[in-house]
Amino acid sequence: MDVICIDQRNTEAVLEAAKLSPEIFGNATRTIAIKAGDGFFDCCARSVSDTQRYRDFRQSLLSHVSDHWKTKFKESYLRRVWTVQEIIWSNDVQFVSDHQRKLDPKVC
Length: 108
Fold this sequence. Notes:
Layout: H1 2-5, H2 11-27, E1 31-35, H3 42-48, H4 54-65, H5 69-72, H6 81-89, E2 93-97, H7 98-103
Parallel strand pairs: 1-2
Helix pairs in contact: 2-6
């Protein structure tokens, strides 16, 4: 979303948005994480859906990894620190697959 809302060529605007990110995501009613579908599946989202803290998120995801560990961390957004931070800062995260979004635009 920041690519749409913030001029990425304006360094000051990008840095200011980065400083505000914990507050923005922490105060959001819901954060919708659209999965690219390249490694993080619906079962993975369910495994972390009730976690409140990063430690719990990490533990739940790592316990779930044994089911299909070779594909787990291929999900592109889990390899970028800022997207994981956004999930951690959020009070309510809804994981949506790109496939679900294309089938039903009302999902998010």
